[in-house]
Specification:
342 residues; alpha/beta; Rossmann fold; 17% strand; globular; binds nicotinamide-adenine-dinucleotide; binds UDP-4-deoxy-4-formamido-beta-L-arabinopyranose
Amino acid sequence: MLQPIILVTGGTGYIGSHTVVELQQAGFETVIVDNLSNSTAAVVDGITRITGVRPHFEQADCCDRNAMAAIFDKYSGITAVIHFAASKAVGESVEKPLLYYRNNLLSLLNVVEEMIAHGVFHIVFSSSCTVYGQPAVLPVTEDAPVLPAMSPYGNTKQICEEILRDTAVSFALQGVLLRYFNPIGAHPSAEIGELPVGVPQNLVPFITQTAAGVRQELSVFGNDYHTPDGSCIRDYINVVDLARAHVQAVNYLADGKNKTAVETFNIGTGKGLSVLELIDAFQKATGIKLPYKIVGRRAGDIEQVWANPEKAHTVLGWHAQESIEDTLRAAWKWELVVRHKA
Ligand code: NAD
Ligand code: WQD
């Protein structure tokens, strides 16, 4: 029997690359499609060094329908698609909404149309806890209301979820929507990790760059929230744990275990950590004293959100395994590799 091939769009990106590693280690053949708009082809070498297997790599834009058709024609053994390819910077999406709507919606439309045309019916989609906004009840479950998006980026995630649900009504499409909480860390080998462009907007890359001396000090955005220490609370999920959830999702669809055509899962640890607690955990994990100051709130920040991951536990059999200390040590190890190469 032919080995199933998983098409991974955005597979040289941060989460995609870790997922390709986990897929290959679980015995899947993988094809990466990436236009390298936010990653480099060198990531394929990192994946190869970790797994000993070179994934197929196609440099192509998912917004190019003909290119996508040619890739599905070339790899006739594709059984499922994991669709990561998207633009993801919240602030940039406010400045360039049309770019975000075009890239994130058109890439999904092309992928799904070519899947159907080629008889591929399983898709795993990268969604986000951003769809919940500030939930009224914590920890948040999948049936919590989806609130009006606070950015064009967030809106693209909501619309993409709806496109998949609507498509599954009329076609044989079966989907898993994974709502990620805050992915952090890097592969423990430090062969792959996150490569933020310019000044990092996300907390952990800013912390590791500050610890490395690239940034002078971290600004903590607000200590006057209604949380125990006044700083915002998030659910920080290790990127390798998150990658494993995609393997479970692909297997779940292949086993036909889904009760409805499109199922949604929260992928988080179930534990909320404040910004100040995260800084403390980083200092304890690495022994590095981190310079930081408290500044005003960042516009648009949610006060507190963390996942109820019970559904992913019981239905997918997925659990977050890595400790926050190991996760932050891996992020730091990766930062040192990046600095060494810079
Ligand atoms: P990333 O930018 O590192 O990876 C995305 C990859 O997609 C990049 O390699 C980029 O070059 C590629 N890409 C973008 N548009 C493309 C296109 N039209 N055609 C082909 N390739 C294209 O981002 P990431 O953090 O790995 O995020 C992956 C997915 O997960 C995204 O859909 C993102 O919205 C979602 N997500 C990310 C987070 C997070 O905090 N990182 C949280 C929730 C959801
Ligand atoms: C985490 C906490 C900040 C930087 C964003 C997107 C979301 C999702 C993940 C894709 C917040 C605080 C941060 C800093 C700080 N992406 N912070 N100083 O905002 O939860 O989510 O990335 O779907 O859509 O909005 O993550 O890492 O930016 O911030 O104090 O320099 O750290 O205020 O409380 P966020 P983040």
